[in-house]
Design a protein that fits this description.
The protein is built from four helices and no strands. The termini are far apart. By secondary structure, the protein is mainly α.
């Protein structure tokens, strides 16, 4: 009986996720998610809820709870990795905009100038050595 209620609750959450909503009242969390991402998100929420309710729950009869916790940790670590990458890209963008605002050229241009300075300096050094050997 208890498992039946949990399964029905999970199906109700999935059904609610797929009900069409008016365009103006769309929740902010679902704006960046596509169809399958919403489905997997709802399934993950239901399965995490089942873990919290009953830690000895065998995940749908296929996986033991330790494997299920491993999958949950993997999913959470991938999500945190995505947040860190997004924050890193945001910081790099803010830094680049700040440098452009301050009048400093783009980081790519600074890199090209630095590399070309070293290359031109070493080429001039080679030419100077060759000229010095010829005239001495």
């Amino acid at each position: 009986m208890h498992a039946t209620l949990i399964v029905l609750f999970g199906l109700a959450i999935i059904a609610h996720a797929f009900t069409p909503m008016p365009k103006r009242v769309k929740p902010a969390w679902s704006l960046h998610l596509k169809g399958w991402q919403k489905l997997f998100g709802v399934i993950a929420v239901v399965m995490a809820l089942l873990i919290v309710l009953n830690p000895e729950f065998l995940a749908l009869g296929i996986l033991g709870d330790t494997a299920f916790f491993d999958m949950l940790v993997l999913a959470l670590s991938l999500q945190m990795h995505q947040f860190v990458i997004r924050a890193w890209r945001w910081c790099v963008g803010v830094l680049a905009k700040g440098l452009r605002w301050a009048g400093i050229p783009s980081p790519g241009l600074c890199y090209v100038v630095a590399v070309s300075t070293v290359a031109i300096g070493s080429a001039v050094s080679v030419v100077q050595r060759a000229v010095h050997r010829i005239f001495s």
